[in-house]
């Protein structure tokens, strides 16, 4: 009654899909590590090496998305980490930040990456204060305020924007902490 060849074919198809899925997860973890290393280099003041890292990460992401189009959702965190480091780099170089399209990510990934980069901006803010670079700290604070003001205009449910609401709440705290520290050290 049941044709076992049907099950055999389905199992074979799923086995192939599983192999691709596993490969995407490996690549995703590599990209996340690459992003972490780029952020570490930013905090160590090695901005010159970061531009090349960001380009390589983007190329790897684009290649992976093309090769494994059915598994794009498994790259969400890698895409978000890439957006975070690319936006952070642009901000610290005092360049205009790239649009989602120019970064090669969707709008939700871009918003979440921007929200995430504010934690790293806070770290740069503190480094500037510790090093006595008040003008740099003030510049970073003004960028944080601008990001906060713009991100707070995005009011949609989690089903549309992912974890952005929580990140907005955290950002509010980050901005207030920075404001307090700026006043204290002025």
Describe the fold and architecture:
This protein is an all-alpha fold and 186 residues long. The chain has two domains: 1-99, Translin, domain 1 (Methane Monooxygenase Hydroxylase, Chain G, domain 1), CATH 1.20.58; 106-186, Methane Monooxygenase Hydroxylase, Chain G, domain 1 (Up-down Bundle), CATH 1.20.58. 80% of the residues lie in helices and 0% in strands. It is built from eight helices and no strands. α1 (4-43) runs parallel beside α3 (76-92). The longest helix is centred in the first third of the chain and has 40 residues, at 4-43. The chain is elongated and about 80 Å long. The N and C termini lie far apart (82 Å). The mean pLDDT is 95.
Give a short overview:
This protein has helices at 4-43, 47-67, 76-92, 100-103, 107-130, 134-151, 158-161, 164-184. The chain is mostly helical. It is elongated.
Q: What's the structural blueprint in terms of helices and strands?
A:
Elements: H1 4-43, H2 47-67, H3 76-92, H4 100-103, H5 107-130, H6 134-151, H7 158-161, H8 164-184
Helix pairs in contact: 1-2, 1-3, 2-3, 3-5, 5-6, 5-8, 6-8
CATH domain topology of the largest domain: Methane Monooxygenase Hydroxylase, Chain G, domain 1
Instruction: Give the N-to-C terminal Cα separation.
Output: 82 Å
User: Biggest β-sheet: count, sense, barrel?
Assistant: none
Note the overall shape: elongated
CATH superfamily of the largest domain: Translin, domain 1
Specify the number of helices.
8
Low-confidence region ranges: none
Beta strands, count: 0
Order of helices and strands: HHHHHHHH
The CATH architecture assignment of the largest domain turns out to be Up-down Bundle
